[in-house]
Design goal:
alpha/beta; 2 domains; 14 strands; 8-stranded mixed β-sheet; Rossmann fold; Dihydrodipicolinate Reductase, domain 2
């Protein structure tokens, strides 16, 4: 592509699109033109198209139909569930793709995408926005200065995760649309469940499905940061889940994961579902050969709330503590990087191999939890 302004289509107009991507595309109007939208809800597609000036004939209720119609250079796949089939279709049609996580749920899906060939998959970015956060990029530089991944002693991650309702109350989003037929919803659920059955087997215990879902839909962001700093984790030695003390029906459990890093250090991840906690908070602490550094992430839905990096180096008699903040969010930096991919061919930080690494990690965690609790694994997860 030779022009600087990218014509982009957005598929899936739910929470992440309404609170993050659509406002950012509008903010980055010198780089992007919103050319088409698609959502299974006709009213959502119409309302969103009207809000952002998308012509009526460019508002679709099917991703397939939108991809067939064309008229754009790139597509953001923000739909729920697996993104692998739509990604493959879009790449074959010549589009660049930013696919939200997870790219897919099964190694089989990743193998099929790899089978498209490097020429096509080079046009794909997987949406791990925290990797692009300026504070995370600064931390990566600090780790390199300290000696790289081999200098890391430990990476400690803690996520305090309140209910989605409390996180999104500020956004004043409209209630869910009621104009999607039950038959279509059932069809979409069945299609979304298919790769999960491939990954975990036809009758996976509920606990294993729950662990797998939390890792693939949320903890994958933390795994992307670990990969950025130290490469994919070498092992999953420990996996456990437990309910919050004030958990209600339908509340997610908390989980704890730990293992070895490839450079010889270790990592620990605590993802704590706290339904009544006052605000989302995430810390990623890296302890290395010559000091420590900590990232403090705010709620991801706040576009202008900067991530804080605190770095401490030196000896007892002369310590240095520095702080870094950037007004640019990880989501905005990610979209800017996507623009560079489309217009200049600059490779993204994550593609199919990184999505496959998430799946391998999640399946290893399932095996550890199954071993601990006497459960039976099946599907891809049954094999080391």
């Amino acid at each position: 592509m030779t022009t600087d302004r990218v014509r982009v289509a957005v598929a899936g107009l739910g929470t992440i699109a309404q609170t993050i991507h659509l406002p950012l595309l509008e903010r980055l109007g010198s780089r992007f033109t919103l050319s088409a939208v698609a959502d299974v809800s006709p009213s959502v597609a119409e309302r969103t198209g009207e809000r952002y000036g998308v012509p009526a004939e460019r508002r679709f209720t099917s991703v397939d139909t939108m991809l067939q119609a064309g008229g754009f250079d790139a597509v953001l796949l923000l739909t729920s569930g697996t993104h692998a089939p739509a990604t493959a279709d879009a790449l074959r049609r010549g589009y660049h793709v930013l696919a939200e996580k997870p790219l897919g749920y099964a190694q089989q899906e990743m193998a099929e995408l790899e089978g498209l060939g490097e020429e096509l998959t080079a046009r794909l970015m997987v949406g791990y926005m925290k990797q692009y956060d300026p504070a995370a990029q600064r931390l990566t530089a600090l780790v390199e200065e300290a000696g790289g991944p081999a200098a890391i002693h430990h990476i400690d991650v803690t996520v305090l995760h309140p209910s989605p309702q409390s996180q999104l109350a500020f956004a004043q989003l409209p209630p869910p649309a009621g104009d999607v037929s039950p038959e279509l919803l059932a069809e979409l659920r069945a299609a979304g469940d298919k790769p999960l059955r491939t990954a975990l087997g036809e009758e996976a215990p509920a606990a294993l499905r729950e662990l797998y879902g939390i890792i693939m839909n949320s903890v994958c962001h933390e795994l992307s940061l670990i990969r950025l700093l130290a490469g994919p984790p070498a092992t999953v030695d420990h996996a456990v889940m437990w309910p919050a003390r004030n958990a209600g029906p339908g509340d997610a459990p908390s989980l704890e994961l730990s293992g070895e890093l490839r450079g010889g250090g270790r990592y620990g991840i605590r993802w704590l579902y706290q339904p009544n906690y006052p605000a989302y908070r995430e810390t990623v602490a890296v302890h290395h050969a010559t000091g420590s550094a900590e990232l403090v992430f705010p709620a991801p839905y706040f576009l202008n709330a900067p991530t804080l990096l605190i770095a401490t180096t030196g000896r007892e008699e002369q310590q240095t503590r520095t702080e870094f903040r950037s007004p640019v969010s990880g989501f905005e930096a990610e979209l800017t990087a996507f623009h560079r991919l489309v217009t200049q061919g600059v490779p993204p930080l994550s593609g199919v191999p990184d999505a496959a690494a998430d799946i391998a990690f999640a399946q290893a965690a399932v095996r550890r939890l199954a071993d601990r609790d006497g459960l039976t694994t099946a599907g891809e997860s049954a094999h080391e």
